[in-house]
Amino acid sequence: MTKYGKDKHSSKKMAIIAGYFENETYGLLGPQMAATIIQDHTPYECIVIAVGRQYDRHDLIKRLADYFGPAQALIGFSALSGRKDLFALAKALKAEGAITILAGPQADVDFSGEEGWRDHPHRFKGLFENFNFGLHGPAEQVIELLNNLDAKADWLHVPGLLYSNPGGDVPANPSIDWNPSYLGKVRWNNIYQITDKGLVAVKIRLGQVLQRIGCPHANRKIPLKIDYPASLRDAEPLAEPVELSLKGCSFCDVAIDKGYFGKLDRDTVISQINCLPEDAHGRKIPFELINENPLPGLTELLHAVHSRGVKLSQINLTLRADWLLSGVRHLEQALETVADMGVYVLLSSIGFESFDDTILKNLNKGLSAEKNIEAIRHIRQLKKKFPRWLGYTTAEGAVHGFIHPTPWDTKETAAAIQKAIVLYGLHNDILPPHSTPLIIHHASGLGKWIREIERRKKLCFKRLGPIIAWWEPPRRCG
Asked: CB of 417 within 8 A of CB of 360?
C-alpha cells in the first residue's frame, strides 16, 4: 500500500473521486463545480477523478500518489451512488495517511448512519470510520474547512461539517443556505479518468446547467398511508398501512437532502451556460437543464441566451408528467422559438415511474396513471408538429422513469401496467430498455416506512450499505 506524503510546505493539492459509467463523456456538475470553487477560493489545485466500476484499485492508488507527490493527500468523495467499493477505497486511503471527506448527496446521513443504528445493529452504521470528515450542503463550505484542517477547535465553526469523536459520537454543524454567487462558474476541463497512460482528461460532450435547487414537490408535507409490502400482506391481508408525513416522492432521498431552495436568477444560469465547452460549429455542447419544472420560463431563457450571442445546440429536459401537462403551451411556444434558433429539445427523462395507481400512490408521486398517459398523448402530438426540433423517444436517447419491481407488485398491478403498455404502445417509444428496481435509501421516506414495519412486526430487513434490501425476505429479530 502506498504511504501518502504529509509535507505541508509542498504545493497544496486536492482530488475529488466520483462514481462514473465506463466509456461515457458526460459531465459531473456537482463535483466539477466543487473543484472549481476550491481552485478559485483556496490555495488548493483540485481535479475530479471519475471512477467506473471496472477499475484497478492498486493502479488508482498509485496514480493518486503520483498526483500528490510529497504533498498531504486530501481526497473528497462525491456522487458515490452507494458504491461499497468506493467506501472501502476511502477507508484504505485514510489508513495510509490521506485526509478523506465525504461530500455530495446524503453526505450527512451516510456519514453518521441510519436512524437508530446503535440500538438496531442490523441497520446501516454509517461511514464515519471510512472518512475523516463529512460535509453536507453547499460546496463553498469546504473553503473554511480547508483553512482549518489542523485546528480541531475551529471545526465547530465550519458549516455543514461532520466528524467523529473518540467516544463515538458524530457532531454535525448546521449547513448554510445556497449562495448563487458561487454557482455561476464551473470548469468542464477538470475531470480525469485513470488509464494505462495515467490520468487522462475526459472530453465532456454532455454538460449540466443548474437552474433550480431541489424539487417543488418536496416543498410541502403530505400525509400518506403506504401499504404493507405485498409479500407481508399475504400473511396479514388486513394490516394497517403505515401513515407518514412526507415531502416529495417517498423514494426520493434528494427531497430529504436538499428539500426545495428555489430557482437561481437568470444571470447565474446564463453564466453557467457560458462556461460550457463549444462544439466544432461554435455552439455550446448539449446540456441538461436541472429544473424539475422548466417549461414556464424556458422561452424567456432561450431569448435571453440568444440575445447575448450564445449559440445553443441541444437542451435536455427532465420533468414530471403533471408539470409537463400544466406547461404544454409553454413547451409549444419554446419549440417555436428553438425552430428559429436551430436548437434541439430532448425530453430526456420524464418521471412516469409506473402506470398503476396503487404503486404511484405508494411512491407519493402526486399524480395518476391517467395523467401519465395524458402527458404522453400531448408529447406525441407535439412531436408530429415539431419533428425536427423535439425528441422524446428511447430511440432518440431519452430514458424515462419506470420503476419495477416494487414491494407492492401484485397480479392486479402487473395486469394494469401491462394493459397500459399494450393499449398505448408504450414499448414503442416510452419504456426504457430496462426498468429501474425501486431503491430505498435509508434516509428516504420509504426508509421510515421500512423501520416502522420492522418495529411493528419485529423484523429485520437486510442492509446493503446505505440501501435497504426490501426484495429479500426479512428475518425475525427481537
From this structure: no
